[in-house]
Amino acid sequence: MVTYLPEEDRYAPIDTIDTTKVRTANISGTELRQRLRDGTEIPEWFSYPEVVKILRDTNPPRSRQGFAVVIDTSSGGEESGDVLSSALQSALNEHSGARRVTKLPSKFNDNFLVHELVRAGSAVILTTSENFDSIISSVGESNTYIIKSTGSDTGYQYSISDGPTEDAGTTCETAVEAFKANGFIS
C-alpha cells in the first residue's frame, strides 16, 4: 500500500517507512465514499483534480441524487395512488427547492425512464399495481421508497415501508421527513 508523506509532499510504500517517526496521510475507501456522499472536500494530494471531478459527477451528494417513490396500488386501487401522488408532488415541490419532481402516469412506469430521471437528480413519483422489483433494482434500494395504499370505508390509507397506516396528509408529512432524514431534501 502507498501512503502520502505531507511533510515531504510525496508518496512512498508504507512498508518502507517508519510510521512512528514519519507523519502519513491516507483516506480509506469508506472515508472517500463518505466525502463523496456529503460533499466534503477531497484533499489535492489524494488524487488528480480531473479524477475527483469524475468521482463527484458519478457519485453526487445525497442532496443532488434523485429518488423514486413507488406507490403500490395493488390493494387500494389506482385512484388511491392518484390521490397520494398528487399530494406528494405538491409537498415535494414545496420542500425540494430546485429539484424536479416528476409524477409518472402508470402507463409510463418503464425501468429505463425511471432510472434516467433518478440519475438526472429528479424525484420520481409513480403508481403501480404490478411488480416493481425491477424498478427498485434499476434505481437502487437506498434511493427508492415504497408506499402501500389501501382502500377502506373511511377513505384511503397508506403506509411507508410497512410502517403505520396513515391518511394522505400524514403520509406526505412522514415521507418528507424521511427524505430530509436521508439527505435528499433540506
UniProtKB/TrEMBL annotation:
Sulphate adenylyltransferase catalytic domain: residues covered: 2-57
Coiled coil: none
Protein name per Swiss-Prot or TrEMBL: Sulphate adenylyltransferase catalytic domain-containing protein
Pfam families: ATP-sulfurylase
Organism: Candidozyma haemuli
Keyword Transferase: yes
GO molecular function terms noted in the UniProt entry: sulfate adenylyltransferase (ATP) activity
GO CC, one annotated term: cytoplasm
Record field: transmembrane: none
Keyword Transferase recorded: yes
Protein's GO biological process: sulfate assimilation via adenylyl sulfate reduction; sulfate assimilation, phosphoadenylyl sulfate reduction by phosphoadenylyl-sulfate reductase (thioredoxin)
Keyword field: Transferase
